[in-house]
Amino acid sequence: MGSIEQSTLPADFVWGFATAAYQIEGAVNEDGRGPSIWDTFCKIPGKIAGGGSGEIACDSYHRTHEDIALLKACGAKAYRFSLSWSRIIALGGRNDPVNEKGLQFYLRFIDDLHAAGITPMVTLFHWDLPDELNKRYGGLLNKEEFVADFANYARLVFKTFGSKVKHWVTFNEPWCSSVLGYNTGSFAPGHTSDRTKSSVGDGSTEPWIVGHNILVAHGAAVKIYRDEFKTQDGGEIGITLNGDWAEPWDPENPADVEACDRKIEFAISWFADPIYHGRYPESMIKQLGDRLPAWIPEDLALVHGSNDFYGMNHYCANYIRAKTGQPELNDIAGNLELLLEDKNGVSIGPITQSPWLRPCAVGFRKLLKWLSERYGYPKIYVTENGTSVLGENDMPLEQLLDDEFRVQYFKDYIGAMADAFTLDGVNVRAYMAWSLMDNFEWAEGYETRFGVTYVDYDHDQKRIPKKSAKSIGQIFERLIQKV
Ligand code: GBH
C-alpha cells in the first residue's frame, strides 16, 4: 500500500485555497449589489445558527489585499473564489442593467492576484441566486427563464474576465442547491414538503427539476464558452460536484454493499452520468420514475460531453445501510441510511464540529478511483477539501491557532490523493483546500470554522493564520515531483 513517502504528485500539480462570495465578501448593499436568495433566507428567524448572515462575513470586499497576502504567505499557486451574480447584475436577468462597479471590483481583484503570481479559478454560481429571479419566475425551478438568464450572465463574465481567467467552474455542488434548497429546506430558498419549516415546496419533485435545470444551464454556459471564447482565450470549463465516500454498514450484507454504489449515484452520478454518459443513472430512473425529468435532445446535446475537467468537492465518508421496503416519496438518497458508525459501533472517523463530517482519508483515494473508472479517467481538479475542528469556536485563541487536527487531516487526505495518482492512475491535477479563512458556514453560521486562517469577527475581521496555513505548502513540497 502507498504512503506519503512513496507516492508523489506531478511536477505541474497546482494547489491553493477556495472560498465563495457570499461566505466571505460582506458589503451586501454596497456599490449597487442586489440581494441574493441567501440575504433573504438569512432574515427568516431560526434558519441560521446564531442568527447570522453574510452581511459582513469576512469583509473581503474591502480586504482583498489582506486575502492575497494570506495566499502569498501560504505559498499558494491558485485561488478558487466565486462571483456574486447580483453584484454584477443586481436583478440578475438578461434585460436588467449591468453593474459596472461589480465588474470593476472583480477585475481589480483578478489583476491583483496575477500580480501576486496566483492563478485565479472562478466559480460562476456558489448558491447565491439573485433574489429577484426567484421572485420574478421561481428561480431555479423555471428552466426557460433560468437557463437564458444564466447564459447571459455567463457570457458577460467570460467577455469581461476571459483574457485573465483560464479555469472556470459553472456551478458549485448542484446537489446542495437541489436537495438542501428544495427538499430539506435547510438552505435558501428553503422549499420543503415539511410544513413546519415552510409553507412552500414539494420535496418529491422540485429537487429533481432543479437539478435538471442546473445541468442544462451548465451545458448552455459551456457551449457559449466553447463557441465564443475558448479559441481566443484558451481556457477550460467544468462543473463542481460534491460527494463523500460510502462504506457498507454491514459488509456481510449484500444489500448494504449494493447500497453504497447507489448512494454515490444519487449524490454524484445524478449530475456526472448525464455529463459523461448522456443519461441519468439506472438506479435513479428505477426509484424516481417520471419524477426525474426526461431529457429532450436539445438539452442533452448541451450537457453530454460538457466537462473539460471534473471538479471534485470531497470531505468525508459514511456508513451506508440499505432500507428495506419501498422508498419514501421524499427520499433523495436512494432508499438508504447514512450513518457515522458501522454495525459494530465503530466510528468512520474522529468527530469534528460538523455533524456530517468525520474524516476517513482512504475514502478519498477510493472515490477518486471510483469516479475515474466510471467516467474514463477524466482530468480531476479537487476544488474543495477540508475540515472543521470540534469545539474550535470555544477554544482560547492560542489553542485554536494550534490546529494540529486540521494539519493531520490535510496530511492524510493529500497523501491519499497522491496514492490515487501514483498507484491507481487517477488523473488528478489540482487541489484547493477549503478554506483560506473561517467564513460564513451557511446554516451553521459562524459557529463552525473551516479556515486555515482564524477570522476574529469581533475585532474588525482580523485574520490570524493557524498552524495549518503553513502546513499545506509543506505537504505539497514533499509530494510534488521536482523537475
Ligand atoms: C461545501 O459543501 C460547500 O461548497 C462550502 O460552501 C462549505 O463551506 C463547505 O462545504 C463546508 O461545509 O447535514 O444532511 O444537511 C460540502 C458538501 C453537502 C456538506 C451537504 C454538508 C450537509 C448534509 N456539503 N452536507 S446535512
UniProtKB/TrEMBL annotation:
The keyword Transit peptide does not apply. One of its GO terms (biological process) is cellulose catabolic process. InterPro entries: GH, GH_1_N_CS, Glyco_hydro_1. It comes from the Eukaryota. GO terms for molecular function: cellobiose glucosidase activity. Pfam families: Glyco_hydro_1. It catalyses: Hydrolysis of terminal, non-reducing beta-D-glucosyl residues with release of beta-D-glucose. Its EC number is 3.2.1.21. Keywords: Glycosidase, Hydrolase. PANTHER family: GLYCOSYL HYDROLASE, LP05116P. Plays an important role in cellulose degradation. Shows hydrolytic activity against several glycosidic compounds. Belongs to the glycosyl hydrolase 1 family. This is beta-glucosidase. The lineage of its organism: Eukaryota, Fungi, Dikarya, Ascomycota, Pezizomycotina.
